[in-house]
Each structure stands twice: as structure tokens, then as C-alpha cells.
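Give me C-alpha cells for this 89-residue protein.
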Amino acid sequence: MELSIEISLYPLAQQDYEDVIWQFIKQLHQHADLTITTNGMSTLVSGEYDAVMSKVMAEIKKVHQQLGMSIFVCKFVPSDRSNFVSKYG
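Here you go.
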């Protein structure tokens, strides 16, 4: 089963918040079996369900351990949405 997770990271009270976000995205890219698509609002991670869940959760845990207070907003879709093209755009 495939899974896609759309993730937005909000590192609270971090002056260098962009660096924190890009570091999280860079860590996700270290997993060759995941497909990563980034835009100005969020990052989409797609791949095999168990691999996506375990690897994304491990990276989220690292951020929480390093930063303490940070918020992740995630949407989970049970399919590979990495190549989704809207008929409207």
C-alpha cells in the first residue's frame, strides 16, 4: 500500500526557522525509497506505507528532540500523490 503525507513544520520561537525547515527536508531526502516534493507551503512525502510512516516519524522525533517546541501539521492520503496533476491547473 502506498502513502503520501503532506507536512508543514512550524518551529516555534526559532529565529532561524527557515534553516530548521530546510534541514528537516534535507534529512527526508536522505531516504532513497521516499519521493519528496517541496513547494512554498509544505512538503509531500510518498512511498510504501510502512517506510513512509517509520521514516517520517523518526525525522519528526529528531526535530522534537533538537528543538523542543515545534508543530507539525500533516495530512495522510493512502495513495501515491507525488505525480498528481489537477484537471484545473
